[in-house]
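job 3f2a | input accepted
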Amino acid sequence: MKNILQNLQQLNFTQYESKAYMSLLKRGDVTGYELAKNSGIPASKIYQVLNKLIAKEVVIVVDSDPARYTPIPPNEVLNRFRNEYIHNLDSLSQSLDKIYKQQEFTDNYIWNITGREAILHRVNEFISQARQSIHLSVWDEEIEHIRTALTVADTQKVQLYIVHYGEEILGFGHEFRHGREHQIRQERGARRIALEVDEERVILGHFLEDGNCTAVWTTNKGLVLLAKDYIIHDIYTIRIAEKFGDAVNQIFESH
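job 3f2a | predicted structure (255 res):
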């Protein structure tokens, strides 16, 4: 109950408004006096609270002599709030993006991210923004957290080029198995992720075996293209190794 009241207050309900609506959901079609008794709201405050709830379109008056009050069903209320919230976000996104793009110097910034969850959230966000192409270098441990976003990108005809460290079968895009996971783990003591999207943005992450995770992202054109070239270079190396087999592997092992 306490969590529900707190969640309602995050939707811009006051504490009294939250209590009144919750009480009406349990027992609607009541007078203001009855609602005050049921909810524990002071009688001197109840009609002020009800008027605010009516203005928010979450309560309606069903009679006038005496006035009786009943709640609008939660699904209707929450769907309306959700649609309004999404509409406001979309409107803000367009407006703020126009302002942001005027600041060309921001392309030179490099942003830091700390923590595995935050890094993977940003990776999923970048993948969902892709419209043309994605170049990705990723390990099994991270792939499951971004598989859904990659699948959606694939269905939207985004070109996927994936250097993959591990045993998972992705089943979409152009997948290139690296095949030297064990050696790299021993050398680095860590996994890395590199994601380049539409030649517009890049994120580079570092996942240490002890759980410490850091990453950087940027829209700096030079760094974006450098990361893309790095992934393409890995793809070329993998394809050469597949074609020439042991001879190439011996070269890698000697360095």
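job 3f2a | Residues 7 and 253 are 57 Å apart (CA to CA).
job 3f2a | closed
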